[in-house]
């Protein structure tokens, strides 16, 4: 099936007389007639469901759909995007290990890497992206486990240099982990550009309607853990799981199997079945929505580029944007999604006036759903960051983040144009 068809039909195939649409398995537990059958499930000898914290039919269908969209070997649905990121990192990192990460990542992820993980003994080394290969390689040591990227950085709107990072990671045998939330598999499939693990906040475009919190980890199955000294947990018998050696016994699915039977087993940050149902429903129109989001955002970006109240605009779909060549290289039809950042003349005061003057766009702590919205990150989502951290994350006082929805493009443009004029009074 092509991607558009996978959005609609992958993951769930009803049998004769079964529901045509994905059912909600709203049950914590599943019945078996013998202890031996359940024991085989615990030992991973058979596939099935026995407790929703580890697996559930509704979640399973969603996981299969997203894995199919990305071209992965498996996926795991989590309670939120932050839960997905945390579980993915802890799957390969222990105290004493470190990760490399772009500094322009989403504020919540930055805080996880900069504050919470160091408390657990896991260090994060941030890089800006303009370093030379030699400078990046100098940041790597024997305890580096992950290089972390965002396909489209939130809210810096920079595009990851996949080819360069993948080459460095391959040289050292390091896992490449990519947050693909703002691109989705409709626009970019990071596994085709050297990534090994893909993460989503499914709360955003995958759901698309701001109704279901969730996160998803996708395993590309393209990383060789077996024999790699950086990942001892995958190459030594796991005493908590009958001596299983994940790299040897689980093959290409080693990462996602361990994430489930160790990480999800112990931390329990599972997505709710109802949220899985709603997310699956949202994905059925993902291929349609992303085209509209991208077209509307491009029209708004052109408006902003030419408006006298705007100092600068960042949108990879603009042919004048520094990231445009990467959008052409990595993104389908150079679509760049619905996220835009721009700098308004007048700083925080003008940003406040701009937001108050909007009538269609809403001020919400959310992005990437069907409705257009706006946020001033320095005073909201990133307000916990220090001034130096804000600079490292690419966030200035005058940065305004727009999430352009699927309304009529002219209505969106009229609202923004009017608010820009009010901001300068």
TrEMBL record:
The modification N6-(pyridoxal phosphate)lysine is found at residue 204. Coiled coil: none annotated. It comes from the Bacteria. One of its GO terms (cellular component) is cytoplasm. InterPro entries: Cys/Met-Metab_PyrdxlP-dep_enz, OAc-hSer/O-AcSer_sulfhydrylase, PyrdxlP-dep_Trfase, PyrdxlP-dep_Trfase_major, PyrdxlP-dep_Trfase_small. Its cofactor is pyridoxal 5'-phosphate. GO terms for molecular function: cysteine synthase activity; O-acetylhomoserine aminocarboxypropyltransferase activity; pyridoxal phosphate binding. GO terms for biological process: cysteine biosynthetic process from serine; L-homocysteine biosynthetic process; transsulfuration. Keywords: Pyridoxal phosphate, Transferase. PANTHER family: HOMOCYSTEINE/CYSTEINE SYNTHASE, O-ACETYLHOMOSERINE SULFHYDRYLASE. Belongs to the trans-sulfuration enzymes family. NCBIfam families: OAH_OAS_sulfhy. This is O-acetylhomoserine aminocarboxypropyltransferase/cysteine synthase. It comes from Candidatus Stercoripulliclostridium merdipullorum. The lineage of its organism: Bacteria, Bacillati, Bacillota, Clostridia, Eubacteriales.
């Amino acid at each position: 099936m092509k991607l558009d068809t996978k959005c609609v039909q992958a993951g769930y195939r009803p049998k004769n007389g079964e529901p045509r649409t994905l059912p909600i398995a709203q049950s914590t537990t599943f019945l078996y007639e013998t202890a031996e059958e359940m024991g085989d499930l615990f030992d991973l000898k058979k596939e099935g469901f026995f407790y929703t914290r580890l697996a559930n039919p509704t979640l399973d269908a969603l996981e299969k759909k997203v894995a199919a969209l990305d071209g992965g070997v498996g996926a795991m649905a989590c309670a939120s995007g932050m839960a997905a990121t945390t579980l993915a990192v802890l799957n390969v990192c222990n105290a004493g290990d470190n990760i490399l990460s772009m500094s322009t990542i989403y504020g919540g992820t930055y805080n996880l890497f900069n504050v919470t993980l160091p408390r657990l003994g896991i260090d994060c080394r941030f890089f800006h992206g303009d370093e030379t290969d030699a400078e990046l390689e100098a940041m790597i040591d024997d305890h580096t486990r992950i290089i972390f990227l965002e396909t489209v950085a939130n809210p810096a709107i920079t595009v990851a240099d996949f080819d360069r990072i993948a080459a460095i990671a391959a040289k050292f045998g390091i896992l490449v982990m990519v947050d693909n939330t703002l691109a989705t598999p409709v626009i970019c499939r990071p596994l085709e550009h050297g990534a090994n693990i893909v993460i989503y906040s499914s709360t955003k475009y995958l759901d698309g309607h701001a109704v279901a919190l969730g996160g998803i980890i996708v395993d590309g199955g393209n990383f060789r853990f077996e024999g790699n000294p950086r990942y001892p947990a995958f190459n030594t018998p796991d005493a908590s799981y009958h001596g299983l050696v994940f790299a040897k016994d689980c093959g290409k699915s080693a990462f996602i199997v361990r994430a489930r039977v160790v990480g999800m087993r112990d931390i329990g940050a599972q997505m709710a079945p109802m949220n899985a149902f709603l997310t699956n429903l949202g994905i059925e129109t993902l291929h349609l929505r992303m085209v509209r989001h991208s077209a509307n955002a491009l029209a708004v970006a052109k408006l902003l580029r030419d408006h006298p109240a705007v100092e600068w605009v960042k949108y990879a779909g603009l042919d004048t944007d520094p990231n445009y060549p990467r959008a052409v290289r990595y993104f389908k039809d150079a679509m760049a999604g619905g996220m835009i950042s721009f700098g308004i003349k007048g700083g925080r005061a003008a940003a406040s006036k701009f937001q108050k003057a909007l009538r269609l766009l809403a001020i919400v702590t959310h992005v990437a759903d069907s409705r257009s919205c706006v946020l001033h990150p320095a005073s909201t989502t990133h307000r916990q960051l220090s001034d130096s951290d804000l600079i490292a994350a690419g966030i200035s006082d005058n940065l305004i983040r727009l999430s352009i929805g699927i309304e009529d493009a002219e209505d969106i443009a009229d609202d923004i144009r009017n608010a820009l004029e009010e901001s300068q009074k």
